[in-house]
Amino acid sequence: MQPFALNYARPAAELEFATPYAYDPGLQLNVLLDGRVAARDHALLRELGTTTSTAGSKTHFDD
């Protein structure tokens, strides 16, 4: 027997959003395109709220 909710469950829509930073494995931090540490960019943090790391766990924060 299949649970009722599985008849209507759908995968979450993927957002098409390019982050203005990338993970640097040498520094183990997210860095901006110009090489600055993303967590030190106050304007970026105000806009996004956080710089979630794309390496490993999605619950790891660099700030």
Describe the fold and architecture.
By secondary structure, this protein is an alpha+beta fold. It has one domain. The protein is 11% helix and 13% strand. It has one helix spanning 42-48; strands at residues 21-24, 29-32. Strands 1-2 form a two-stranded antiparallel ribbon. Strand 1 and strand 2 form a beta hairpin. The protein is elongated and about 55 Å long. The protein starts with 20 loop residues before the first strand and ends in a 15-residue tail after the last helix. The mean pLDDT is 76.
Summarize the structure.
The protein is α+β, with helices and mostly antiparallel strands and 63 residues long. It has one domain. The chain has 1 helix and 2 strands; from the N terminus they run ββα.
Topology:
Elements: E1 21-24, E2 29-32, H1 42-48
Antiparallel strand pairs: 1-2
Q: Using the CA coordinates, give the radius of gyration.
A: 17 Å
Total individual domains: 1
What's the tally of helices?
A: 1
Helix and strand content put the structural class at alpha+beta
Protein name: ATP-grasp-modified RiPP
Organism: Streptomyces griseoruber
Attribute tags:
GRASP_targ; 63 residues; ATP-grasp-modified RiPP; single chain; alpha+beta; elongated; Rbsml_synth_pep_Strp
